[in-house]
Amino acid sequence: MKKSTCLPIFFSILLSVQAQHKPVNENATEEARMLLDYIYSLNGRIMAGQHSYNENPSSFYDKAQKISGKAPAVWGTDFYWNGEDDPGDRIVQEAIKKHQEGAIITLMWHVGQPKHDPPFHWRESVQGEISEKEWIDLLTPGSVLYQRWATQVDQVAVHLKKLQEAKIPILWRPYHEMNGVWFWWGDKKGKNGFAKLWKQLYDRLVNHHQLNNLIWVWNANGPRDIPGDQAYDYKNYYPGQKYVDILATDVYHGDYEQKDYGQLLKLAKKKPIALGEVGQLPRTLILEAQPKWSWFMVWSNWIETANSPERVKDVYQYEKTITRDEVHSVYQH
After folding, report:
1. Where are the domains of the chain?
2. Three-state SS at 195
């Protein structure tokens, strides 16, 4: 596969200066270090982002551009394997294309339970229950379930390595919304809970696979008390400062609570924070009151179903919103 030869000028400029903010991976690539420095430098500005499903990985990104008149600065998709074939190669090709166009790349992973083979069924696998014994087994090196988990990770690592070879840094946000009750990895508190799974994944990708192009984004969900659909306080699932570069949360229904924003900032201890997924876009008054968000990413068709064209344009035209034209203006090809 042909490697990307473009290097953003903001990377080029920063490469000449020692990175000011150390990533958690001491062997992080220069591109990853410089992207992290860029995010630290935003200083109250926010990058616009858009998610597209991997079967058509540019569809809603293009839709956001059509509605707003400007291309999102951040493009995202998902390694979720729900069809006959592994979508990884398609994702890699699109990520390289979007990088060449000037976008920043974020990738996530709706993965099925390790006891299941792909393709993964949404309700039965991604959102299915995992027993306490199965949870312990997958966190126990040498067990059958641990090995099946490792095989899952090794599969996604194949694709992440191709992006590393292409010198593309990734905002990597696996096992998201872990403080909610709806995914198999969700609502696992304590030292042997989610935090241990996160550290295990970090070790497998960074130390075993030597993937150094990843910026580690720990992405929770906005706390809420909805019976059967709860999401709990962030701190109960946080693996610690040594394993997280950026803290993010998801907000779908316009509930951009100031107390939740404050809670995440406190947990971050001056690390960047972001809106990993949103449904209804935050109004500009919210962005004024919550200026530390580094980016937002609208989830797929919610750009149309949850937002009026006027709302999209209002946020994209906000003076502190960064779109791809601004990022692209500091790219050279």
Report:
1. 7-332
2. helix
Burial (0-12, 13-18, 19+ Cβ within 10 Å), 30: middle
| R_g of the chain computed on alpha carbons | 19
- Encode 60-75: b = buried (16+ Cβ within 10 Å), e = exposed: bbebbbebbebbbbbb
Q: How far apart are CA 224 and CA 305, in angstroms?
A: 22
Report d(CA 327, CA 322) in Å as an integer: 7
Active site residues: 177, 277
- Does domain 7-332 fall under CATH 3.20.20.80? My reply is yes
Rounded Cα–Cα distance for residues 190 and 332 (Å): 47
Residue with tokens 């701190």: 235
Name the helix (H) or strand (E) containing 14.
Answer: helix 9-15
In this predicted model, what pLDDT tens digit does every residue of 230-251 receive, in sequence order? 999 999 999 999 999 999 999 9
- The model scores a pTM over 0.85: yes
